[in-house]
Amino acid sequence: MTVRAVELPQLWMPYPLRVNPYLPALREESESWARAMGMLDGDAGSPDRRAIWTRARFHAMTVDQLTAWTLPDASLDGLRLNHRFNIWALAWDDYFASAFKQTGDLPGARVFTARLRAFLRPEPGARLPEPTNAVERGIADLQRHLFPPHLAHWREEFNRALERYVDAGVEELANSRNGRIPHLIDYAPFRRESFAAYTAPYSVELATGARIPEQIRHTRTVHALLDAFMDFMGLANDIASYEREVHEEHDVNNLVLVVGTSLGISLHDAVPAALHLVNARLRDFEHLRQEELPLLVRRSGLHDDERAELEVWLEGACGFLSGIHAWYTGAPRYAATNVSFRP
Known about the structure:
Layout: H1 23-28, H2 32-36, H3 55-60, H4 63-70, H5 76-101, H6 106-117, H7 134-143, H8 155-178, H9 184-194, H10 200-208, H11 214-217, H12 220-240, H13 242-248, H14 255-263, H15 267-300, H16 304-330
């Protein structure tokens, strides 16, 4: 039974979609960086330029829309920077699936990942290995540009998030090879890693120029807010990519399978249960944003400018969630799963 054979509840999204006005400029140059990194076909004569996508497949993913929808407030420079990161993350995902998940090559995946980790050293000026493929070439280039002075404080945390991201790919492959479906209790924290969700607060800060005030950043309320923010991204992605991951890639790391196995219920019941869980995490985010965070702000005695900066960041976070929801429901990458989504 597939998702398309199940009558689904609706996935909730309370925030309106806003589109960055620089989308046309981004669309015009969308493939230039991917081609320069060797991710697109056309370099078949060079053994170290193995392409990941055809030009048609690349444009069908509409990564430019993903970037412009999730970062409606970003400057053109910020939009370009995040666009390159989005391209790289999808390139890693598709390359890893093709080279290792489809072949079951766990030793090869470990070697590939160990080399990638060498590109994620947080020290400025660290000497990087010589890239040997498009994924390494892309991350090496990003390391030179991702952390402009106003975002330099993100270098260590962002690279740690990327280490978690690539390491999670190996763990996912090991799960699939062993037929081990993760347990629901463990899966949501793991999905934040395997979706690279820990990089999303950086993207919001890049787009808005606003930070969560340091005085409340490490409180329980803010941690809970960020967890719910990140959970929606990865868990909703599992719904959108169910057909491709489970039926085409034979992946066991998907919320629908996790819910069904952990709760001992059929797929018919697991699909709506998974959707309700995704909805619940977004409602948690909204409750924390509307009810608990204002109480924390008042107790913490934030200044007016700090409160204003927090509001700008939160508006950016809501825009990010709305944009990623719109991409899940509109991009051909996820078209195989016909899920009912409510705006």
